[in-house]
């Protein structure tokens, strides 16, 4: 199939997002932050509605609310009076519900389906440039601060004792993930945006023996899923976002089935 | 900092000045004052909840202090081996990778450090495959590669069998002699505290007592402090110059080292 202009834009935008969501997704998986992704995505929907209503724009609203949702969740989870899953159920679904209500009440019509499921075929060349600029900048920062990022992820106390500014690292990761989610919403929508972070990274885990190879494979799986998903969506006339995630999940299971046998299963006595 | 031994006349490498740490309404530590001198091995002992790990974390700047002042060495010259760290196998990480302080550390340097701590055969294994004792040795190698002037170890002998434990303390003793570094460690295995420590600090919210370890003392109050294990324990000579309040709800460990109500 010969890609026309529309599909070409979608491919570049999708690949641009996958390029950065792959390595960032590894941190989400390593730090067991998948639930933060959900809280951010659902908060972003409310943000889009309020951003449009207030005139700040959907993107600004999405980023601000994604950050608010994750910061709130992190603070509340530390209290331990309720489990993180319960707080997530309240906060993430609460903001999803509020977002849906807000969108329906708004004077300006917002296409709800494109928010929920993404509309990658609607991206403009300006969007493509923004996405590419963002992903290259974020990748550059990830590469520059790779060591402190890894150290703070491996063991925060050890990193602090060694002089790493762990709070700054955490803040950077939160911001990068919130921005990625706000941008990736356009591609796969609010409901599946966490999958774009988590699924490629999880698929890459089975084939990686170092953090760097995992980040690389994760980006490659993401890009392959975007290409495969868009092809499938054109062929089957299915929605693009869910098709991309479906392909990523397929890659995950194929990778799991064919994984090389590494001796990296934890031994029983180290688990106690 | 090349010669071993203590010398209170020299400048301390690290020092606490009336340090207190409060969590909520509870004082985890209060009135902590002591210095750590170059080439010295100091061991912190005390019952569970005495604030040993809190003190170590305050020294390393991991947790904030509420009152007082801490003189800290530069973080780049500190090696830290935390208490029983368990690495999540979710991140693929080899021993070689965990140990190297920078991307371009030459392989022979890494191998030498792992040989020094006795885990060189594990160099290409995933970190999640290590046993408890091996893991602590790998972390020790990581700390050593930073060429520290101060080594801080929190319960370094946890999850290590008796022989491994003796070897570990011998290694620490050798490192002090060869490299002239200071070592602060937390231990509850008092019988090994004996073997290789210059000074013992008994902690129970505050510094109960501190002094040089001596050959087993038969003093009844220390038998009480360490219960029935007293016979195999290393005990140390010191003077109690203060009294504890007796109205504590907590069961006292000994007549002299009772936990107090933690209000300074």
TrEMBL record, chain B:
Recorded hits in SUPFAM superfamilies, A to Z, give: P-loop containing nucleoside triphosphate hydrolases
Query: What UniProt keywords are attached to this protein's entry?
Result: ATP-binding, Cell membrane, Ion transport, Membrane, Nucleotide-binding, Translocase, Transport, Zinc, Zinc transport
Region Disordered, residue ranges: 244-264
One GO term of the biological process aspect: zinc ion transport
GO molecular function annotations of the record: ATP binding; ATP hydrolysis activity
Q: Where is the ABC transporter domain?
A: 14-229
Q: Does the keyword Disulfide bond apply?
A: no
Q: Which SMART domains match?
A: AAA
This protein is called ATP-binding cassette domain-containing protein
> What organism does this protein naturally occur in?
Phaeovibrio sulfidiphilus
User: Taxonomically, what lineage is the organism?
Assistant: Bacteria, Pseudomonadati, Pseudomonadota, Alphaproteobacteria, Rhodospirillales
